[in-house]
Specification:
This protein is an alpha+beta fold. Among the domains are: 17-59; 109-180, SH3 type barrels, CATH 2.30.30. It is built from four helices and seven strands; from the N terminus they run H-H-H-H-E-E-E-E-E-E-E. The N and C termini lie far apart (106 Å).
């Protein structure tokens, strides 16, 4: 005949942990089962969450709302033959026009000097360093960063012509521009 377990009534006022009621070897097994049960609940809840997400986003039909009543439109008449225009007519219309204009008029010395000065506004002289017998300039080009340049190097379409201890001379299309501190 199996033994009957007798439960003792707990004394009021004292709360005891369920682990203290267990025998010395049982509490380890009990912790494992609690840990495993909580992992199972986590797995089950994640599966249900994933199933709900898939059903809501991929399997459900879109909501239609109100549908417009059918409206019958009149037919539009299209001419049987569409007249064609020869290309020579377009060429004649465009012949006297200047389609592509430069921003600054080309060919004048004043305009190229103005262009060189406008382009030089993008450049900032940061520093000049003596390297042996020659100077090197640190110049910041807007939106490109700072770099080191020697005589003969290209800086944003300019060519470095001369570097002294107080200025850098640049050349663009025959026009000279100086950068100073």
């Amino acid at each position: 005949m199996p033994k009957k377990r007798v439960r003792r009534k707990r004394k009021e006022g004292k709360k005891r942990s369920f682990l203290l009621v267990l025998k010395p070897g049982q509490w380890v097994r009990s912790l494992r089962s609690i840990r495993m049960n909580s992992l199972r609940w986590l797995e089950v809840s994640l599966v249900f969450l994933a199933a709900w997400f898939i059903a809501e986003n991929f399997l459900s039909a879109p909501e239609l709302g109100e549908v417009e009543p059918f409206v019958q439109y009149e037919a539009v008449s299209v001419p049987a033959e569409i007249p064609s225009v020869p290309f020579s007519k377009f060429a004649e219309a465009l012949r006297g026009r200047q389609l592509f204009k430069p921003a600054v008029p080309v060919g004048t010395a004043a305009s190229s000097q103005m262009t060189a000065e406008n382009m030089a506004e993008r450049l900032t002289l940061v520093g000049i360093v003596r390297s042996g017998d020659a100077f090197e300039a640190y110049i910041t080009v807007q939106n490109e960063g700072t770099s080191r340049y020697k005589v003969g190097d290209k800086v944003a379409d300019f060519t470095v012509i001369d570097i002294t201890k107080s200025k850098v001379t640049l050349e663009l299309a025959g026009q000279l521009v100086e950068l100073r501190f």
